[in-house]
Automatic annotation (TrEMBL):
This is Class I SAM-dependent methyltransferase. The keyword Transferase applies. InterPro entries: Ppm1/Ppm2/Tcmp, SAM-dependent_MTases_sf. SUPFAM superfamilies: S-adenosyl-L-methionine-dependent methyltransferases. Keywords: Methyltransferase, Transferase. It comes from the Bacteria. Gene3D superfamilies: Vaccinia Virus protein VP39.
Length: 269
């Protein structure tokens, strides 16, 4: 599994696996350990010292879990599409949803072997795509219809150019006219001040952030989306860990941290 995004998938997987081992997990992805093979452990060894970032990765996942679960509680048969799914296991953990995971063939093959769709507690389909050579629009065309769809794009957008982000949103608008997007967006200032060392390791594996700005939500707003909420990843991480003092400080006195890395929900109808 050589491509750079797959390496980052191993990193985020390892964050969730480590979180699940804790006495008080933030996310509690008990399926993550299934994928912790030698390659995953080698990747994890390079990131173990980044405690705040690792915890934030687990919190990021939990924030999206909670937002999507709110929707599924209202409409248990809703379709959920996970773009660049990596080692996502939400179809096995959340209540409800008809799930479609989309990612590179190597990841899909590995997931099928280690966590078969037959074990999912919700309907689940996996769709493989070579993002560099195949058309996302063509791949998703068979699923095109007007029902409301929930699209999760986690740990992906910062690695795409602005043009690629706009192209992806155009495809989503074409295939799923009524949808909500759940994604993590990081400001350039936050990346420079708080994620420089982490990014250096990611970049050494070939996974560099692209076209970072302090208004990462702009492509969505320009494409006609409405912002339906944004949750601070660093702040929520502290709240989930029960660290009330540091959470208060971040909330009241550290806006660069508080607002620098957030989970956004965008609506398009």
């Amino acid at each position: 599994m050589a491509n750079a995004i797959s390496k980052t998938a191993y990193y985020t997987l390892a964050c969730r696996a480590e979180d699940a081992r804790q006495p008080r997990p933030l996310c509690g992805d008990t399926f993550a350990s299934r994928f912790m093979d030698d390659e995953a452990r080698q990747v994890w060894a390079r990131f173990q010292s980044f405690h705040k970032a690792n915890t934030s990765n687990a919190a990021r996942h939990q924030i999206i879990d909670a937002r999507v679960q709110e929707e599924l509680d209202r409409a248990p048969d809703a379709r959920v599409v996970v773009l660049g799914a990596g080692f996502d296991t939400r179809a096995y953990r959340l209540r409800g949803g008809r799930w479609l995971e989309v990612d590179e063939p190597a990841i899909i093959t590995l997931k099928d072997a280690k966590l078969p769709v037959t074990e999912a507690k919700n309907p689940l389909e996996r769709l493989s795509i070579d993002f560099g050579a195949e058309s996302l629009a063509s791949k998703l065309a068979p699923y095109q219809d007007s029902r409301r769809t929930h699209v999760i794009i986690e740990g992906v957008l910062m690695y795409l150019s602005n043009a690629q982000r706009k192209d992806m949103l155009a495809v989503l608008a074409q295939v799923f006219p009524r949808h909500a997007v759940y994604c993590d967006l990081m400001r350039a200032t936050f990346q420079r001040q708080y994620s420089r060392d982490l990014h250096a390791v990611l970049a050494s594996m070939g996974a560099s952030f692209q076209d970072m700005t302090d208004t990462p939500e702009a492509p969505f707003l320009e494409a006609g989306y409405t912002a339906a909420g944004a949750t601070s990843v660093p702040l929520r991480s502290l709240e989930l860990a029960g660290k009330r003092g540091p959470a208060f400080i971040v909330r009241r006195f550290m806006p660069t941290v508080r607002d620098g890395y957030r989970i956004w929900k965008f609506e398009r109808s």
